[in-house]
Amino acid sequence: MGKGSEGLVLKVQNTHSKTMALKIKRIDSCRTDMKNEFEFYQSVNRNHLGPKVYSYTKNTLLMEFVEGLSARNWFLKSKMNLELIRKIIINILTQCYTLDKLHIDHGQLNKLDNHVIISHHGSKCTIVDFESASCIRKVNNVTSAFQGLIFKGIISDQINKFANYDKKRVEFLNLLSRYKMDMSKKNFDSIIALI
């Protein structure tokens, strides 16, 4: 399914033939075990975010298999329209807002490519890969994801073919600055209203 700098994710079946995802820590990983990531998944699961996590060992993490494509592949391969794009952007940013309110910084949402799985028809978005998450860092989930969706990278290039958000760049930057200073629902809603 995927290979990252810290682990390898495999599609497996349990004894009841249910498809699941198994993340295996790479032997050259700097992480000592999977406990920290497991605990972050438990926290976000309580708020209906991320794939459901089941168990972990020192070197593995067992979780729900999420059907769909990486955000990068979805935006490159799917048939899009403005309404669907807007719906997906709002869905992802709303999940990021929830993470901000939980004081959990994902740490990698500036590169959404493989950190968000989008269902084939775009009806569901799931933030994955909490290995770099932190409760200590200042949270930047909304602003980081916004960069990858609207301002910079291959995903924003695809989105801006349908919705020319560059015209609103200055306005967005002002709203994002305001949000960074005060992560209130009002400031978040102001960003969403402009999408």
Secondary structure: elements and pairs:
Blueprint: E1 2-3, E2 7-13, E3 19-25, H1 35-45, E4 53-56, E5 60-64, E6 69-70, H2 71-77, H3 82-101, E7 116-118, E8 125-127, H4 141-151, H5 154-162, H6 169-181, H7 185-194
Antiparallel strand pairs: 1-2, 2-3, 3-5, 4-5, 6-7, 7-8
Describe the structure.
The chain has seven helices and eight strands; from the N terminus they run E-E-E-H-E-E-E-H-H-E-E-H-H-H-H. By secondary structure, the protein is an alpha+beta fold. It has a five-stranded antiparallel sheet, covered by helices on one side. Helix content is 42%, strand content 17%. The longest helix has 20 residues. Helix 2 packs parallel to helix 5, helix 3 runs antiparallel to helix 4 and helix 4 packs across helix 5. The model has no long low-confidence stretch (mean pLDDT 92).
Number-wise, the strands total 8
* Average pLDDT for all residues: 92
Q: Strand order of the main beta sheet, please?
A: 1-2-3-5-4
Round the Cα radius of gyration to an integer and report it: 17 Å
Strand content: 15-25%
Low-confidence stretches: none
Distance between the termini: 32 Å
Order of H and E elements: EEEHEEEHHEEHHHH
Structural class category: alpha+beta
Percent range of helical residues: 40-55%
Largest sheet: 5 strands, antiparallel
By DSSP (H or I, 4+ residues per run), the number of helices equals 7
Shape: globular
